[in-house]
Amino acid sequence: MSQPLTALRTEYVCSCFFNRQIFIKKYGLHVTYEDDNQFEKDFRQSLRFRGCSTEKQYSEVLLQVKTEVERRKSYHSTFLSNFMRNKEYRYIHPEIIQLQTRFLDQRFLDMMQENNLQDTDTLLQALAANGGHVHGPQVYSFPIFTKDFCQLLIEEISNFKQSTQERSLPNTMNFEGVSLDEMGFSCTFLTSLIKNYFQSITKLLFSNWGGGAIDSFKSFVVQYDKDKHPSLSKHFDNGEVSMSICLNSEFEAGDLQLEQVFGQEEDLDMEPVVVKQQMGHCIMHRSRQFHFAHPITSGVRTNMIVWMRSSSIRNQMCPMCGQTPDIQEVQIAGDGFTLGQDSAACSCL
């Protein structure tokens, strides 16, 4: 979301939102759809190589893609309808609506002492001294939430899922997701978390990716189940800086692997980075860095995902199509682009 949902203003997406980066889970392929002829020309052969060899299989894929295109066309109106309906949702743990320091791991609070935020080296020293790690170029992990808070949030998300059937899928790669924007959690808790803490971190650690000018974000929760959805395919995120926070510990395996950056795939010297998922810990990285989740071998894993965005970066190039954005106005739940005078107003931060 790129502004408070309680004070709606004009929002924008790049037109590629409606027909690009469509994920076909069965064949592990992201596709673009303009029309049937283009789709067959661009992707029929790739699909054959991945096992989609019969006319029936191809027809099923084509139907899936067309259905997703139609879903995206109505996504923003559906999101607005769901959000207005879900405003009546009553939290079973209303104390978590507002950020409180008791929800934050003491090591994170120690890391965020003002004198540790003077420069990058001092911050990295504080990170290492408080349970954090530097895993590779601009890949960091550190404790952030207490276990008690993680449990409260998981219970709240479970209750929200049971309380309403009217929910928008936050993305097409995980069908167990819940939009924290739609749930009303973003403009309270998460806005405060990013404004009061994470902007200070991204300003130092991701300055070359707009980390000093984060002005919007999208947040959701994903769930991995050994039997239903054990892993996540290789992809990159629609943001400038991403963070993934593991909310539970009742699972085995499921490490996050990070590889090259989108647009820099020729950097073959870059070694893959593998990071272990730990309850209450945040993994922070460049959104455009390709990554995937290894399969969990038992249990269920729940993660909070936040894509932090900077209009100063994405207004120059859309991260999803790699081109100058073709701006389209939407009702709500834009992707962090701004236009003209909307730059100053279009922000939840």
Automatic annotation (TrEMBL):
Pfam families: OGFOD2-like
Molecular function via GO: dioxygenase activity; iron ion binding; L-ascorbic acid binding; oxidoreductase activity, acting on paired donors, with incorporation or reduction of molecular oxygen
Source superkingdom: Eukaryota
Cofactor(s), names only, from the UniProt record: L-ascorbate
Keyword Iron on entry: yes
InterPro entries from the UniProt entry: Oxoglu/Fe-dep_dioxygenase_dom, Pro_4_hyd_alph
Domain Fe2OG dioxygenase, first and last residues per copy: 215-310
Alphabetical UniProt keywords: Dioxygenase, Iron, Metal-binding, Oxidoreductase, Vitamin C
Entry keyword Chloroplast: no
Protein's recorded name: Fe2OG dioxygenase domain-containing protein
